[in-house]
Design goal:
The protein is about 50% helix and about 15% strand. With about 450 residues, the protein is α/β, with parallel strands linked by helices. It has three domains: about 5-60, no CATH class; about 65-195, Leucine Dehydrogenase, chain A, domain 1 (Rossmann fold), CATH 3.40.50.10860; about 215-375, Rossmann fold. The strands form two sheets. Strands 9-8-7-6-10-11-12 form a seven-stranded mixed sheet, with helices on both faces. A five-stranded mixed sheet has the order 1-2-4-3-5, sandwiched between helices. A hairpin with a 2-residue loop joins strand 7 and strand 8. The two termini are about 30 Å apart. The structure holds NADPH dihydro-nicotinamide-adenine-dinucleotide phosphate. NADPH dihydro-nicotinamide-adenine-dinucleotide phosphate binds next to helix 9 and strand 7. This is Glutamate dehydrogenase.
Length: about 450
């Protein structure tokens, strides 16, 4: 981080404070560094942000909640997990961001996700603050009854911090429609109120929105298509690799297919499956969503496909790569391989899946790079649309909601590109997204005073 003027010294100071206070939270420090570094040109142009302490306030969550989640497993043994909710910034609206259930969850991971969420939510143009939560609970191998008891216990504590005007969680890794159902049921039971707007990602019968399931994956592909179109290209006819095979990955793959691209590889944490002529995306969806299978089962059921145990999916040559699994899954070595194999565009469906070194490899090679806070904002944007429908007790049709989503993604693309152009770097979507998101939040924080 540069230190050549007073303003930039302050940027460096803000990062140093994070290293001292939160150095033991590497994911959060990484996310903060990436944002602070790209804000330097904006801070140079707008010293008022530095004088008002906006940077320091943005990097410190408004509230961090850590709680015990006791539950009983099917053998009758009592188990204890740790629950988290980081209410990071509410300048633009109620805290909004998903819940992640995964053994890797800790306060640093939740802080990194909540920090990213602030800027992502600002980019959607909707009135949403930033937050994130979850637990180190591992849903894998648990029975349905165990998942329900865990969700009920989790919500028994969390409910006191939520509300449609306060904090509105959604799903993330390990939290899908089923878990949101158990969480919403418990919230309703404890509060004796049918507050649909307190959670998003709900089922269609009980306040959910059309397109929410598809939104993050679809939105990522709409965004990548926009980036390509800005260069006179498109997804149609392109070979695409999608990592992961969860919610984001499946619907990203489906939209690629609908736009005429060919998805040749997908993965899970055990390995990846390749079919040079294109995977059958509906078969992947059915295998994962309806049967709870693994991608290696796909290879067993489809003779044209082969399963690669533990290899890197980024070794598969492609024109477009969509990392849709988890953080730091694409490093500089993988990026170098992708560039050598002719990749032209990357869209981060997951949050921070690309390491800083890999981002640099792509940018140096002139590869279009859509950062997660812009490219995967379609999920939270559609959650915002779900909140609008709940507030007006309305429900919109699929096509109307999908049109709203694709318009929001086009608007995000244009505002990010315009901001990057204003700083003389039209293809630098990282710079554009960070400065556009930051400016909106920072201007609002200035309006609201030192709180
Ligand atoms: P899911 O739990 O539905 O799917 C995650 C997928 O990633 C699974 O296929 C999982 O495989 C795979 N995966 C996890 N770790 C690895 C790894 N180390 N290597 C390869 N594959 C791995 O989660 P989502 O699809 O909801 O979320 C994926 C990412 O997208 C996360 O970063 C999330 O924060 C982000 N995101 C999600 C949004 C949403 O609306 N759902 C919104 C915006 C961002 P396995 O089954 O083996 O664990």
């Amino acid at each position: 981080m540069s230190r050549d003027t007073d303003g930039l010294q302050l940027t460096a100071d803000a990062y140093r404070t994070i290293q001292v206070r939160d150095g033991h939270q590497p994911e959060f420090a990484q996310a903060a560094y990436e944002v602070l570094e790209s804000l330097e040109p904006a801070l140079k142009r707008h010293p008022e942000y530095l004088r008002s302490g906006v940077l320091e306030r943005l990097c410190e969550p408004e509230r961090q909640i850590i709680f015990r989640v006791p539950w009983t497993d099917d053998t009758g043994a009592v188990r204890v997990n740790r629950g988290f909710r980081v209410e990071f910034n509410s300048a633009l609206g109620p805290y909004k961001g998903g819940l992640r259930f995964h053994p890797s969850v800790n306060i640093g991971v939740i802080k990194f996700l909540g920090f990213e969420q602030i800027f992502k939510n600002a980019l959607t143009g909707l009135p949403l603050g930033g937050g994130k939560g979850g637990s180190d609970f591992d849903p894998k191998g648990k029975s349905d009854a165990e998942i329900m008891r865990f969700c009920q216990s989790f919500m028994t504590e969390l409910h006191r911090h939520l509300g449609e005007y306060t904090d509105v969680p959604a799903g993330d890794i390990g939290v899908g429609r089923r878990e949101i159902g158990y969480l919403f049921g418990q919230y309703k039971r404890i509060t004796n109120r049918y507050e649909s707007g307190v959670l998003t990602g709900k089922g269609l019968n009980w306040g959910g929105s059309q397109v929410r399931t598809e939104a993050t994956g679809y939105g990522t592909v709409y965004f990548v298509d926009q980036m390509l179109r800005a260069r006179g290209e498109q997804i149609d006819g392109r070979r695409v690799v999608v990592s992961g095979s969860g919610n984001v990955a499946i619907y990203a793959a489906r939209k690629v297919h609908e736009l005429g691209g060919t998805v040749v590889a997908m993965s899970d944490s055990e390995g990846y499956v390749v079919d040079e002529e294109g995977l059958d995306i509906e078969a992947v969806r059915e295998l994962k969503e309806d049967r709870g299978g693994r991608v290696k089962d796909y290879a067993e059921e489809h003779p044209r496909a082969r399963f690669v145990d533990n290899g890197s999916i980024w070794d598969v040559p492609c024109a477009v790569a969509l990392p849709c699994a988890t953080q730091n899954e694409l490093d500089d070595e993988a990026a170098t391989t992708l560039v050598r194999n002719g990749v032209v565009a990357i869209g981060e469906g997951a949050n921070m899946p690309t390491t800083p070194g890999a981002v640099k490899v792509f940018q140096d090679a002139g590869v279009l790079f859509g950062p997660g806070k812009a490219a995967n904002a379609g999920g939270v944007a559609t959650s915002g649309l779900e909140m609008q429908q709940n507030a007006s007790r309305d429900s919109w049709h699929f096509d109307y909601t999908d049109t709203r989503l694709s318009q929001i993604m086009a608007d995000i693309h244009d505002s990010v590109r315009e901001m990057a152009e204003g700083y003389g770097a039209p293809d630098n979507y990282v710079l554009g997204a960070n400065i556009a998101g930051f400016t909106k939040v920072a201007d609002t924080m200035l309006d609201l005073g030192v709180i």
